[in-house]
Amino acid sequence: MIGTALLAGAEHGLNRLLRLDGTALPRLARLAGRVLEVRCTAPELTLYLLPNADGLRLAGHWLGEADCTLRAPAASLLHLAASRRKTAILHSPEVSLEGDSATLLALAEILQDLELDWEYELSRWLGPLAAPLLAGSLQHAARWSGQSLDSLRQNLADYLAEESHTLVGRHEAEARFAEVDDLRLAMDRLEARIARLAHTLESSDNA
Amino acid sequence: MNDPRKGREAEPTTHFGYQNVPESQKAQKVAEVFHSVAAKYDLMNDVLSGGLHRLWKRFTIELSGVRRGNRVLDIAGGTGDLTRQFSRLVGESGEVVLADINDSMLKVGRDRLLDKGVAGNVRFVQADAEKLPFPDNHFDVVTIAFGLRNVTHKDDALRSMLRVLKPGGRLLVLEFSKPSNPLLGKAYDAYSFAFMPLAGKLISNDADSYRYLAESIRMHPDQETLKGMMVDAGFERVTYHNMTGGIVALHRGLKP
């Protein structure tokens, strides 16, 4: 019962979020009737997702047949939820997918494309004057934080690669990898040539 | 032989809460209770169960295995909590029938569902659970939530439900039952007989109806007895899940 209560609470919150996006619910309505089973292998946990025109239904049990079953450890599921390149993660060995993968990808795309109208929700609580002021300040703060984080990341990468030489820079590493690939190819060719010469010598000796 | 008193004495009786009443009067008395509480039924459910009835119904939906295109019968559907959720799950190609013997409850349910925009795949039928007016092998799922204890002939009702189910169809009976822990049972008794009639008096000015509710729960068969009754009616693979320490149980059986 506790699990059911937690899922009901999560579902209520999630559907409130989905209603902040003007396109999410009509897109979810197109997936109505599908059942997605998400099985977390470590720790063991099963969650069923049922999209409908009112949002997403979350269930801990579902006796009906699932259209798509995704099995993965928690880390991969989190990575899958956050990453934009989902196909690569779905092909990793610890992840297995059975059934209609298009439904899963369509649902993931809807959730990833969410553009929540926070300003509208804020205006309901704070009024039409205060909401844009607060929203503007929050957007400015978010932009500044994003730019600062990018700048910090770039400076740290430059320092580690160029000044402390703790790490190899991306371009340098790519050049080395290309050289190693060329060398491996040359070695393969040499091996093939030696084998052919050895074969030729062996056949002339026998003659 | 022709003494009319003999005929009256011969009429079998049944329980109405803790009272014994002639069988022919039970349906009328139950109807009076529900006519009285219909207007504030949802509010009272939330107050008396602390909102838990929503979780019990949610679990019922999860175990129903309902799919798009299914035909569902919600008996004693009352104000339509289950019907609303089934309506979404079966989609436009499916159908949900909300059946209730009490026209006041049916009207409240119909108005409430229409207000919430639930229409198109829902039908409202005033029907007696003992004599369901539907063809044989018609529904994929039949549910009866907090309704079976008010039925006079429960065996007849279960057989009627079996008849209208398709082979492989599921019956789900959500009903108050017997707490598995004696201590919880004592606390629950105190709550039922002290708080419930008081809340009924304060909110809907009707303590008697809620006293009947508490008494009828005590008179309802416990988990194992109801399981046996479902097996006797012809259901297979009958199982039950206790919820909130057995205060409520969900029985599930399949039609062979």
UniProtKB/TrEMBL annotation, chain A:
<dbReference type="InterPro" id="IPR038989">
    <property type="entry name" value="UbiJ"/>
</dbReference>
<dbReference type="GO" id="GO:0006744">
    <property type="term" value="P:ubiquinone biosynthetic process"/>
</dbReference>
<comment type="function">
    <text>Required for ubiquinone (coenzyme Q) biosynthesis. Binds hydrophobic ubiquinone biosynthetic intermediates via its SCP2 domain and is essential for the stability of the Ubi complex. May constitute a docking platform where Ubi enzymes assemble and access their SCP2-bound polyprenyl substrates.</text>
</comment>
<dbReference type="GO" id="GO:0005737">
    <property type="term" value="C:cytoplasm"/>
</dbReference>
<feature type="coiled-coil region">
    <location>
        <begin position="180"/>
        <end position="207"/>
    </location>
</feature>
<keyword id="KW-0831">Ubiquinone biosynthesis</keyword>
<keyword id="KW-0963">Cytoplasm</keyword>
<keyword id="KW-0175">Coiled coil</keyword>
<keyword id="KW-0830">Ubiquinone</keyword>
<dbReference type="InterPro" id="IPR003033">
    <property type="entry name" value="SCP2_sterol-bd_dom"/>
</dbReference>
<feature type="domain" description="SCP2">
    <location>
        <begin position="14"/>
        <end position="112"/>
    </location>
</feature>
<dbReference type="InterPro" id="IPR036527">
    <property type="entry name" value="SCP2_sterol-bd_dom_sf"/>
</dbReference>
<protein>
    <recommendedName>
        <fullName>Ubiquinone biosynthesis accessory factor UbiJ</fullName>
    </recommendedName>
</protein>
<comment type="similarity">
    <text>Belongs to the UbiJ family.</text>
</comment>
<comment type="pathway">
    <text>Cofactor biosynthesis; ubiquinone biosynthesis.</text>
</comment>
<dbReference type="Pfam" id="PF02036">
    <property type="entry name" value="SCP2"/>
</dbReference>
TrEMBL record, chain B:
<dbReference type="Pfam" id="PF01209">
    <property type="entry name" value="Ubie_methyltran"/>
</dbReference>
<dbReference type="InterPro" id="IPR023576">
    <property type="entry name" value="UbiE/COQ5_MeTrFase_CS"/>
</dbReference>
<dbReference type="InterPro" id="IPR004033">
    <property type="entry name" value="UbiE/COQ5_MeTrFase"/>
</dbReference>
<dbReference type="GO" id="GO:0009234">
    <property type="term" value="P:menaquinone biosynthetic process"/>
</dbReference>
<feature type="binding site">
    <location>
        <position position="100"/>
    </location>
    <ligand>
        <name>S-adenosyl-L-methionine</name>
    </ligand>
</feature>
<comment type="pathway">
    <text>Cofactor biosynthesis; ubiquinone biosynthesis.</text>
</comment>
<dbReference type="InterPro" id="IPR029063">
    <property type="entry name" value="SAM-dependent_MTases_sf"/>
</dbReference>
<dbReference type="GO" id="GO:0009060">
    <property type="term" value="P:aerobic respiration"/>
</dbReference>
<keyword id="KW-0831">Ubiquinone biosynthesis</keyword>
<dbReference type="GO" id="GO:0043770">
    <property type="term" value="F:demethylmenaquinone methyltransferase activity"/>
</dbReference>
<keyword id="KW-0489">Methyltransferase</keyword>
<protein>
    <recommendedName>
        <fullName>Ubiquinone/menaquinone biosynthesis C-methyltransferase UbiE</fullName>
        <ecNumber>2.1.1.163</ecNumber>
        <ecNumber>2.1.1.201</ecNumber>
    </recommendedName>
</protein>
<keyword id="KW-0474">Menaquinone biosynthesis</keyword>
<dbReference type="GO" id="GO:0032259">
    <property type="term" value="P:methylation"/>
</dbReference>
<comment type="similarity">
    <text>Belongs to the class I-like SAM-binding methyltransferase superfamily. MenG/UbiE family.</text>
</comment>
<feature type="binding site">
    <location>
        <position position="79"/>
    </location>
    <ligand>
        <name>S-adenosyl-L-methionine</name>
    </ligand>
</feature>
<keyword id="KW-0808">Transferase</keyword>
<comment type="function">
    <text>Methyltransferase required for the conversion of demethylmenaquinol (DMKH2) to menaquinol (MKH2) and the conversion of 2-polyprenyl-6-methoxy-1,4-benzoquinol (DDMQH2) to 2-polyprenyl-3-methyl-6-methoxy-1,4-benzoquinol (DMQH2).</text>
</comment>
<feature type="binding site">
    <location>
        <begin position="128"/>
        <end position="129"/>
    </location>
    <ligand>
        <name>S-adenosyl-L-methionine</name>
    </ligand>
</feature>
<keyword id="KW-0949">S-adenosyl-L-methionine</keyword>
<dbReference type="GO" id="GO:0008425">
    <property type="term" value="F:2-methoxy-6-polyprenyl-1,4-benzoquinol methyltransferase activity"/>
</dbReference>
<comment type="pathway">
    <text>Quinol/quinone metabolism; menaquinone biosynthesis; menaquinol from 1,4-dihydroxy-2-naphthoate: step 2/2.</text>
</comment>
